[in-house]
Amino acid sequence: MAISNYDVGDLVRVTGTLTDADGTATDATQITFKIKTPAGTTTSYVYGADAEVVKSATGIYYTDVSVTSPGHWHYRVISTGTGQAAADGVFFARTNEF
């Protein structure tokens, strides 16, 4: 897996795309995004309860992460009920100093 690189101060869009076994986009009963900072702090956002999670189309959800510190940022997208699945990823934030 390739790790994307960003700068501190960037806004990174983390997207979860859900499909059924036939590849058709489907909505889940519940979508949760978990974001873990380089310092180890984890924040959870739930679609329908937190404005940070946006549904852009059937089966496509996202949250924008404000990159506030350098290091590896981890995220996990979890869907439960209909469309049950989970996926995770990581990106790296660097300090952009001259």
Walk me through the structure.
With 98 residues, the protein is an all-beta fold. It has a single domain (4-94), classed as Immunoglobulin-like. The protein contains no helices and eight strands. The strands form two sheets. It has a five-stranded mixed beta sheet, with no helix packed on it. It is elongated and about 50 Å long. The mean pLDDT is 92.
Summed up, what is this model?
This protein is an all-beta fold and 98 residues long. 0% of the residues lie in helices and 55% in strands.
Provide the descriptors you would attach to this structure in a database record.
98 residues; mainly beta; Immunoglobulin-like; 5-stranded mixed beta sheet; 3-stranded antiparallel beta sheet; 8 strands; 0% helix
Task: Tell me the strand percentage band.
Answer: over 45%
Our count of helices gives 0
Helix content: under 10%
Overall number of structural domains: 1
Stretches with pLDDT under 50, minimum 5 residues: none
Element pattern in H and E = EEEEEEEE
Q: What is the overall silhouette?
A: elongated
Cα-atom radius of gyration: 14 Å
Give the spatial strand order of the biggest sheet.
1-8-7-3-4
Provide the CATH architecture.
Sandwich
N- to C-terminal separation? 29 Å
Strand tally is: 8
Overall structural class, as computed from helix and strand content, comes to mainly beta
Question: Can you give the mean pLDDT?
Answer: 92
CATH class: Mainly Beta
CATH topology: Immunoglobulin-like
Multimeric state: single chain
Largest sheet descriptor:
5 strands, mixed
Annotated CATH homologous superfamily: Immunoglobulins
